[in-house]
Amino acid sequence: MGKEIEIELKNLVSKKDFYHIAGAFGMQEEDFTLQENFYFDTPDFALRSLKSALRVRKKAGGFQLTLKTPEHVGLLETNQLIGEEDFQHMITGSTFPEGEVYEKLAVLGVPAENLEYFGTLATKRAETGFKGGILVFDHNFYLNKEDFELEYEVSSLETGTKHFITLLDQYGIPYHPAKSKVLRFYETKLKEQ
Description:
The structure is a single chain. This protein has helices at residues 15-24, 46-49, 84-92, 100-108, 157-170, 181-192; strands at residues 2-6, 8-13, 33-41, 53-59, 62-70, 75-82, 116-130, 133-142, 145-153. By secondary structure, it is α+β, with helices and mostly antiparallel strands. It has one domain (2-192): Beta Barrel (Hypothetical Protein Pfu-838710-001), CATH 2.40.320. The protein has a nine-stranded antiparallel β-sheet with strand order 1-6-5-4-3-7-8-9-2, sandwiched between helices. A hairpin with a 4-residue loop joins strand 5 (62-70) and strand 6 (75-82). It starts with a strand and ends with a helix. The relative contact order is 0.22. Residues 4-192 form the CYTH domain.
């Protein structure tokens, strides 16, 4: 699957604003699909301390292993398709699949055998094109919490930020850059301990 740079702008919104703007873009209930993210880290949060994250995304019957690591602008995503058996081995902590993600973890100095399954974040997601990027509507569920988020995936941070802030202003939504889903997940997880 390879590697790609991800530049996303994120904004948490109220449930009311979420459904208002989603409706304004013509999003219907059937436009939302469910995806599940399963997060992994070491017991001492080694990946989190490196501002990195490891997840398996279950979507459309398949499994995609993704390691996100920081870049100068955005995040580098190292992606790898894995089978259900590999996924189950990761959940139980028995083995980790070989490949690009395993190799990148070694470079980071995080042994794959130290990783543990931390929990699941489910997202009902709809997407639409918007001014050269992708506007994403995410309703997230994790660790007995839920939140509503707008994401704007872009190729230029500067141009994307202008378009995103203009859009939010148009709908009277304050711009408060949101933390990533995995950071919100980890902060909630740490409060539980």
